[in-house]
Specification:
- The complex is a heterodimer of chains A (115) and B (173).
- With 115 residues, chain A is mostly helical.
- Chain A is built from three helices and no strands.
- The longest helix of chain A is centred in the middle third of the chain and has 28 residues.
- Chain B has a two-stranded antiparallel ribbon with strand order 1-2.
- Chain B is mainly alpha-helical.
- Classes of the chains: A mainly alpha (115), B mainly alpha (173).
- At the A-B interface, helix 1 and helix 3 of A face helix 2 and helix 3 of B.
């Protein structure tokens, strides 16, 4: 599959396709990590039984769709840009700020404490 | 009154009467173009045309070029791996405060979990900064910056492990 894509500029030895694939898999793992951490941190907001048990499932589905769309958009920009790619500092900053917000929420949850 | 040719870096030193560090001649350099002092940067803005538009660079700014795309990807993956480490620390910290049974030590679960969450926040911030520094170094063809984070992370996790062992030895309710 990656063989059909043009080798980006600066590649040379032909590993570029695999590097891209590895990077996309890394983004997928990050998506799963974000989902798992959100689920654990905000555990008490998700009803796990009863009529409202559907709520967390819907939220997870929405999150997955957003993540996949974001990855596709990033990929398109990348192919258009040739080398380097459209994943800019703002993308990384967004993920970092999101992680920080999560950390603050987790700290608050940890302080207020237990079930 | 002082005289210095425009390339001498140390005009301000000459002005205060201290010897010029480069040519050592104090107030008056007087060597003109023969002075071997490092040249002061001259900021001639010139346009550089890229796919993303026009940017202006200076003659003396480190020249930047697009690194090998594989290195860009590798840097990206490294950032993501650090970020996942941060997320894992946060999630584990929450689990420690929420899911463990109460220890005999007051606030034992907080003592165990909150440092992990704080360490996670630290790792998240530094991972972004390190990604940016790596990116800049690669674009300028400079050596990659060193990071203290592997050491910090190792020590942090080691300390958390020690806390966990102590809490476990004292026992839980």
């Amino acid at each position: 599959m990656h063989n059909t894509e043009p080798v980006p500029e600066g590649g040379g030895t032909g590993d570029s396709g695999l590097a891209k694939e590895r990077t996309e898999l890394a983004w997928s793992r990050s998506g799963l990590s974000v989902a798992a951490t959100v689920a654990v941190t905000l555990r008490r907001l998700w009803p796990l039984s009863g009529d409202k048990a559907i709520v967390p499932l819907v939220l997870i589905a929405i999150g997955a769709v957003i993540w996949v769309l974001g990855m596709q958009l990033g990929r398109r920009g990348r192919l258009g840009a040739g080398a380097g790619g459209a994943v800019t500092a703002s993308t990384f900053r967004l993920l970092t700020v999101g992680t920080l917000i999560l950390a603050v929420a987790a700290f608050a949850v940890g302080l207020v404490l237990p079930l | 009154m002082w005289v210095a040719h425009s390339n001498c870096l140390h005009r301000s030193r000459a002005r205060t009467g201290k010897p010029c560090r480069a040519c050592g001649l104090g107030e008056v350099c007087g060597l003109g173009e023969a002075c071997t002092a490092p040249r002061a940067p001259r900021y001639h803005l010139r346009p550089r045309y890229t796919e993303r538009g026009v940017s202006f660079v200076t003659d003396d700014a480190p020249s930047e070029r697009e690194p090998d795309v594989r290195f860009t990807y590798a840097n990206e993956r490294t950032f993501l791996a650090w970020n996942r480490t941060a997320l894992a620390l946060i999630a584990t910290g929450v689990a420690a405060t929420q899911l463990l049974p109460e220890f005999h030590v007051d606030g034992g679960r907080r003592i165990l979990g909150l440092p992990m969450i704080a360490l996670g926040a630290l790792v998240a911030v530094t991972s972004f900064r390190h990604w940016r520094a790596n990116e800049r170094a690669m674009r300028r063809g400079q050596p990659l910056p060193r990071s203290p984070m592997p050491l910090v992370l190792s020590i942090g996790i080691g300390l958390v492990a020690v806390i966990a062992v102590v809490l476990a030895l004292i026992g839980s309710k």
